[in-house]
Amino acid sequence: MERYREIEKSIIKKYRKEIWGKFVKAVKDYELIKENDKIAVCLSGGKDSFLLAKCMEELLRHGKFHYELEYIVMNPGYEDENLKQIKENLDLLKIKAHIFETPIFGVVGESENACYRCAKMRRGYLYDYAKKLGCNKIALGHHFNDVVETIMMNMIYNGTYGSMMPKLYSDNFEGMELIRPLYLVQEKDIISWSKYNDLTFLDCACTVTKKNTGQRVVIKKLIEDLNKLYKDADKGIFNSSLNVNLDTVIGYKKGHDKISFLDEYRDKK
Q: Any alpha helices (H) in the chain, and if so which ranges?
């Protein structure tokens, strides 16, 4: 059996519970894929997006409904060696991807909000390119840990309670939707899958900021420490977003409206 087939097989056999089952559950529970969707799978070069590509292929091969896939790689200004590694992994895993150039790294520079600007620009370029290919959705490789970290970052840095949603509509590209099929898959299992198959992916290929810096790195370490003190603390944080009790919060937002507990409290007199 060719190596890429062995890699694909490991997803639905050895990692059936840890990866495949959770991937399928997210697709089903959050209704991420529908009949006749045309989805652009966005490959950053990292382990998460390459796993996502293979999972999407396997679901199409074994699933009960039809959809189309396109694979896109946006080059924001990678160094030649990093782009070379991406292309080698595309060849190894038999993925035919569209690679397109953007000036993102050069534009954002080393400003204080470089990461925010970069993420926003990336999203825009991905939506635009996917739409030109006739796609109605883009799929990103964010996983369970990304979701938990986002919840914590919002609480600590922004003073808000908000999660990373499993899907959302684009505000600027009509008819386009973003989906996150690895939403329930834990990063440790993705790392395990990568090591099991002796795969090497890009870790951090950013030419603007230093590796292992920034707010998300701090939050990741905080959550690791919490898990040492309290078993499955990260799962508790994740589940809290599924069980928000509005009767026990002082206020919340609905769209642009701010709602206070006093609004309903006064009516109980």
A: 3-12, 21-29, 47-62, 80-92, 104-108, 114-132, 144-153, 187-196, 215-229, 233-240, 261-267
